[in-house]
Amino acid sequence: MKPKVCISYLITVIMALMPACLPAQYLSNPSFEGPAGISLNPPGWIPFDMFSTPDTEPLECDNFQASDGDTYMTLVVRGSHSIHPGTVENSQAALLQPLEKGSKYTISLDLASRDNLGHYVFGEGFIRYEAASGLKVYGSNSVSEKGTLVMEIQEVIGREWQTFSHTFQPQEDIRYLLLEAGLSGPSDLWGNILIDHMIITFEDETIVQGEFKIPNVFTPNGDAINDSFVIKGLPPYSSLIILDRSGKEVFRNEDYQNQWNGNGMDGNPLPADTYWYILITPGLSGKHKGYVYLKRD
């Protein structure tokens, strides 16, 4: 016989404990969108060093397209034939909410490198920015400090976007992130690194509950991959409730069979957003709550 659960009562209790709003993205401009231009930073990003002049690309003459959105950011490493030889470019952004000490986060971003960047030097010809380059990510609690290294990619080669990710736990609250180009070869060479689609995810420890796992993201975009909110090892007769940012119930099933495909109770697709879930599992701690990101791209 299926266990009976008073769902309406549980919603009332959990809603009283629910945050006023669900967590948003940590970066105001994670895809580096903005007007393209040399020495023109994407909105929300500022150079950390006075000699740093990141670019927002592609320019009209370029055919290397962004991995997400319309534009990306380019940082260079300076070799010889520069007024600042041996220096690197960097850019810093303030977070919309801090990365908290002791919590676990994953940074994911797309990187590439171009072989047609450079400049002309009289008597020398075209100086290419083609040395193998990498990227360092620093986290800080102060706008005036570079902070602690939280992620490093040693070398990126090629004109195709590659996705890199790293999970870490801050040793102090982080309110600013800084991206800095790095060089894996001789210091007298020039190099470049292209950056796009930077996503920070809070890795909630409660996504693993006993012997079953609750995902924190799914992508109902019709590609037959991760199209449903699938909870692995889900006990029978479990109830699932989904609430939007305002606390409105948008989905409910009292015998959930991993079939939520991102549609609301009216059958229409819900917008891409972060939703609050309430899972009630007979015999396994009773109830679990957390966030799931519905992504359609």
Q: Can you walk through the features of this model?
A:
The chain is mainly beta. The protein folds into two domains: 7-23 and 204-294, Sandwich (Immunoglobulin-like), CATH 2.60.40; 55-202, Galactose-binding domain-like (Jelly Rolls, Sandwich). Helices cover 4% and strands 39% of the residues. The chain has one helix and 18 strands. The chain has a five-stranded antiparallel β-sheet, with no helix packed on it. The protein has a five-stranded mixed β-sheet with strand order 14-18-17-15-16, with helices on one face. The radius of gyration is 23 Å and the shape is elongated. Residues 1-24 and 205-209 have low confidence and may be disordered.
Which structural traits does this protein have?
297 residues, Immunoglobulin-like, Jelly Rolls, 2 domains, 5-stranded antiparallel sheet, 1 helix
Domains, number:
2
For the report, how would you describe the main beta sheet?
Answer: 5 strands, antiparallel
Any guess at the CATH architecture of the largest domain? Answer: Sandwich
CATH superfamily annotation of the largest domain: Galactose-binding domain-like
Provide a compact summary of the structure.
The protein has one helix spanning about 5-15; strands at about 55, 70-75, 90-100, 105-110, 120, 125-130, 135-140, 150-155, 160-170, 175-185, 190-200, 210, 210-215, 215-220, 240-245, 250-255, 275-280, 285-295. It is mainly beta and about 300 residues long. It folds into 2 domains: about 5-25 and about 205-295, Immunoglobulin-like; about 55-200, Jelly Rolls (Sandwich).
